[in-house]
Every structure is written in structure tokens, then in C-alpha cells.
Amino acid sequence: MTAGSRIVAMGHYQPSRVVTNDDLASTIDTNDAWIKDRVGIAERRIADAETVADMATFAAEKALAGSGLTAADIDLVTVATCSSIDRCPNVATRVAARLGIAAPAAFDLNTACSGFSYAMGTADHAIRAGASRNALVIGAEKLSDVTDWTDRTTAVLFGDGAGAAVLTAVPDGEQPGIGPVLWGSAPDKGDVLKIEGWQPYIKQEGQAVFRWATTALAPFAIEACRRAGVEPSELAAFVPHQANTRIIDGIVKRLGLGPDVVVAKDLVESGNTSAASVPLALSKLIERREVPSGAPVLLFGFGGGLTYAGQVVRCP
Ligand code: UT7
Questions:
Q1: Distance 141 CA to ligand 1 centre (A)
Q2: 272 part of the active site
Q3: Of 113, 134, 225, 244, which is the active-site residue?
Q4: Which of 8, 78, 145, 296 fits as disulfide partner to 67, beta carbons 3.0 to 4.6 Å?
């Protein structure tokens, strides 16, 4: 039996093409000042030939290389994505095939921008139940494929990328590194953010999502901390979904986080990458050694559905 799981290592991947706000302003009626002021984004990465599976594989490869484990050790692969055009074989089995992971449980999961926390919660439960020992949990998106590049209300928001974590079982008696997930949804509000139909462009009622995010979510984030036995004031870092700096600042205020808490604002350089935003931001914080190993970090995703999920993890 195991007491739970912990993150051993993380990795991320972003396409090399940088698209600045000024680049977008040359084709649609927008400007750098509006995007920075209203959203907080300065630039984003946009994929060219890379698919969701490519980006997921590159991120997972890095996480695996840093974990001390090998492909033979991995028995579960899950990919959170809402933008993969390829559906079967699913992205998880494509990643497994490319990394030489022979026979894992392999599934994709779509809860839009909260996907990484849902996937990590699910993998953690599988490990707790004894159905897995070492899992790869990935968030990967190519939102540029589902963006209407003539619609200024959405085209300025999104980017492409992937982040991945390797989870392993902790021995009985040891403290788990992944706290209980707090997850849920508001299905009655589903219409305010859609990617649907045969030409599935993202459509969103930005203000409705903004209102929900700034009013409804802070109590859930606090509850995720409570379930882990951690006070928000004890957090070393907060890694929320990277949609809008004004939303992030609003939640930070309601959590009462002090000035010493590291708050991820990766959207400035990456845009909103939906299910990839939390693992991408966390992987970068770890790479830059901005959070000490073992320190508590609150992850919190939210978006289409409307869905939300979060948990406190210990930094690897
Ligand atoms: O990741 C999934 C979850 N999604 C989110 O969390 C997104 C939540 N929503 C938001 O972050 C914000 O609502 C947006 C960033 C999407 C929009 O910001 P806003 O402050 O709510 O803007 P708005 O929609 O109220 O529009 C204000 C004005 C409008 O002009 P008028 O009617 O006041 O003349 C818009 O037409 O800004 C205009 N506008 C723009 N102007 C320049 C809208 N988009 C742009 C643009 N450039 N790209």
C-alpha cells in the first residue's frame, strides 16, 4: 500500500515561434497597451508543424529524464487537452509509443483549462488505489488550431505548449507530496466558453468568465489548502491557471497571500495555454529554482465547462 504520491520531476516544451502583441496588431484591430492592461500578456508561442502529441512528448521526455526513472517504470500516461485534433489513437498512447513506454494505462482527459489538476488528481487516485506506481501526467494544447485569428476578443489570449510531471508512489508512512484534489464544475454556466461544431473555434463571453473566476473560485482554492492541512499563509507558491493577471491578482488578494509567496505569471510570456498553463508555469518555477524543494505549492486550474480543480503539491 502507499500513502499517496509525489511529483519527482517536471518538464515543459514551447514552440520556438514568438508572436508579440505588435505582431497581432498588424493583422487585427488591437494594440499592445490594451492587451497588457486588460489581460497581462506580452507575447505567446505559436506552434507551426508541432502537434499536441509532439509537444506533449517533448515535455514528458524532459520530465522523465529528470526523474531518475525510465520508460519501463511508467505504468500510466494521461494527457489533459481540449485542442487535440487527433482523437484516436489518443494523445496518451501516441506519447507512450514515442517514449517507448510499453503497456501503460493511457487516456486523455478534457476539462479544458482545469485539465492538469484533474489529471493529476486522477493519477494520484490510481496510485493510492494500487492501480499505478509511476505515472506521467501531461497538459498539452495547440490552441492556435482552434483560434479564430480574425476575432480580436479571443485571438490575443491564447498560446501553444505543454508541461509534464512524473508522479511516483510514496512508501507507506511517508508524507504524500500531492494533497487531496478539490474539483468541481458549474455546468449551468457552460455556454460562456465553447469550442464546438465542425469548425471548432473558441468562443467566450469574456466578462461572464471573468466575473465567475473572480467571485466563485477563491473559496475553492482555500478549501484545497484546508484538505491538505496547509494554511494559505504557509504556501511558498501559487500557480493558478494563466488566463488574466487581473484574475490572478484578485484570487491572490482573497487568499490573503503575502508578498513573499511566489505567484506564477507565466502568461506574460506564454499567453493562455489552457490545460498546459499550470504545468508549464510550475515547471519553469522549478527550473529557475524559485521554489525550494519540499515547499507547498497551490495549483489551481479553471475554465471551460465551467470546471475547476486544484491541489497543494510539494515542490520536487
Ligand atoms: O482560460 C479559460 C478561462 N478564460 C478566462 O478566464 C477569461 C476571462 N475573461 C477575461 O480575461 C477578460 O474578460 C478578457 C481579457 C477576455 C476581456 O477583457 P475585458 O476587460 O472583460 O474586456 P471587454 O470584453 O469588456 O471589452 C472592453 C472593450 C470593448 O470595447 P467597447 O465596447 O468598450 O468599445 C471591446 O470591444 O475592449 C474591446 N476589446 C479590445 N480592444 C482592443 C476587446 N478585445 C480587444 C482587443 N484589443 N483585443
A1: 22
A2: yes
A3: 113
A4: 8
